Structures are given as C-alpha cells and as structure tokens.
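Task 17 of the worksheet. Students: predict the tertiary structure of the chain below and write it out as structure tokens. Keep your answer in the requested format; marks are given for formatting as well as content.
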Amino acid sequence: MNFPVPGFFDPTTAENIFMVPYEQRFAEALAWRKKHNLHTAARDGLRVGLLLIDVQNTFCLPTGQLYVAGQSGRGAVEDSIRTAEFIYREIGNISKIYCTMDTHELMQIFHRSFWVDDAGNHPNPATTIAVGDVLSGKWLVNPAMAGNILGSAAQHVGLQKFALHYVEALAKKGRYQLMVWPHHAILGGADHALVSLVHEAVFFHAVTRQSRPGLEVKGGNPLTENYSVLSPEVLETNDGMAIAQRNVKFIQMLLDNDILIIGGQAKSHCVAWTIHDLLTDIKAKDPKLAEKVYLLEDCTSPVVIPGVYDFTPDAEKAFTDFVAAGMHLVKSSDPLETWKGVTL
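Model answer:
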C-alpha cells in the first residue's frame, strides 16, 4: 500500500539547508501513525531495509563542494526529492533506514594538503596521482604530514614509501587512480550533514514506525580512501600492517533484511563500490542473496566534472554487472508491491 506524501513536504526546499522542526514533525508523525493505523517496524513480517549512501549536503546541494550534478546538472537535487517522496509513500513498508555519512578531516591522503611538488605547491582539486607520478617525484608526501598523522616528523620517509604502496595497491586492485578531491564532508561543517529534505523524511519515518535510523560513518582514516562504506580502499601498509578493516558487522546487518533497497550518491563512486563490496560477500555466502537487493536507479547520479571527467559510463557498467549478478533495477515511483520478486 502506498501512502500519501505529507502536506508539509516541499520539494522546492531540496536545494536548501534548513532546520527541521523536530517537535512539530514528531507530533505530526504520531498523528500520521494513528490516522493510517501503522504498526511499529518491529512487528514487520517482511524486513525491508533502505540504505541511503552519503545523502549529504556536500554531494546533494549545488553549492556543495562535491555536488553530484550528473549529466543533467540537476542530478542529486532531483534524486533527493525522489528519495524523500519514496520514504513517505512506502513508510508502511520500510522497516529501517540506514544512512551512511562520508566523514573527513583536512589532512587525508586524497586532500591537497597531503601532497606537494618539488617546489612545495599543493595539487589542484581533480588531480589524479598515478604510480608513475609518485615514482618520478612529480608528487611527494608533504613533510608536515608525518608529524600530523603519524606523530613524528622522522617518519616522513616511511610515509613516502607508504604513498607509493598505496597508489600501487589501487592499480593492482583495478580501482580508480588516487584523485585529489576538493575538501568535502569535513566533520563539523554544514556540508557534512544529511541534506535537510531527506533528513526530515528519515526523522518522520523513525517516529511513525518507531524505528531507530542507522547512521554509519565512514572515511575518517587519513591513510586510505573509503568510497565503500563496507571496506576502505587499502587495508594494509607496505609492511603488511593493518590500517583498516572491512565492516563485517554492517554487511551482516544489511543482509539480515529480507529486502534491501539502495540509493544515494554518487552512483559512480560510493554507491557503486558499496554495492560491489556487498556483492563480493554475497557471492561468498550464497549468490542467490543478490536477488533480495533492489537498486533505485532514479535516486542516484554519477560524478560529472565538466571538461575534466564524466564517470557516467563507469557507473552504467557497474550497474549492468550488478543486475547480471541477480540484483534488480527499480524506480522509486513504482510501488514496492509491483517490483519483481516482492510479495508484501
């Protein structure tokens, strides 16, 4: 059963940062539950999880440092509107919402301050750093990083060796080359927060269904990228020391759902690699588990930097592979009960 979208929902605010009137929404959610005779999510016979990947201001607002415009230029804004509408319409079917949050600090391996050239200049945003760039000395680890990250300036040589190991590890795994991203999702900043329109819908769902949202933070390790919420890009140093680990607990939490729906930003990066890592675990456990995963194709967009990169083909190739493995591509506008393999 689809539910109406509440009257307070205003899609024109999708590009705005606003304070959600929590007490007012709390009261409205209680009334909504009573009016539509909704039971608590704990009583759901079919567990439906909604995973929203990095639906944050930095990616979803045109003023965001890493706005995911897609090819239309309106990508993440329109995705946010459709995502919020989907939550309201399917509020009686969605058992739990999980929100991942890309979370960074200034001094990380993919930010400008980590790298310098031989004149001490930092790379510009959107610079890619390949194995050859590190071997040739085109890009060097900023000497200040050793003291800030490792606690001792004397470890600069070791950090330089790690940097070479890092870009080599990315190449061996067939991942994207290391890219220097604009500063984004900085912990404590307004750009780090969930986009207000979606956050409001998540809050309303939590009250209405008495279901605590899951907030999963990722990306704070200074020595590795973390596109996927399920696993950092590189797990070990050049000496075989562990620097990070796969998020096994969260993987199992997601797979405990009978139906898992996925949307968010960006389709070509954090969404694609999260699904890729989830699929890796699924194949190891039982390939048929892929059939419980549904991808909201109209609630995610690829990274497009005009004149620099267009990752649309990468995103489309990844999603084609996911469908071939048994996952489903669906539209948020189609009722859940009409999706292939879903019986509510």
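Marker's comment: The CA atoms of residues 255 and 289 lie 8 Å apart. The chain is about 35% helix and 15% strand.
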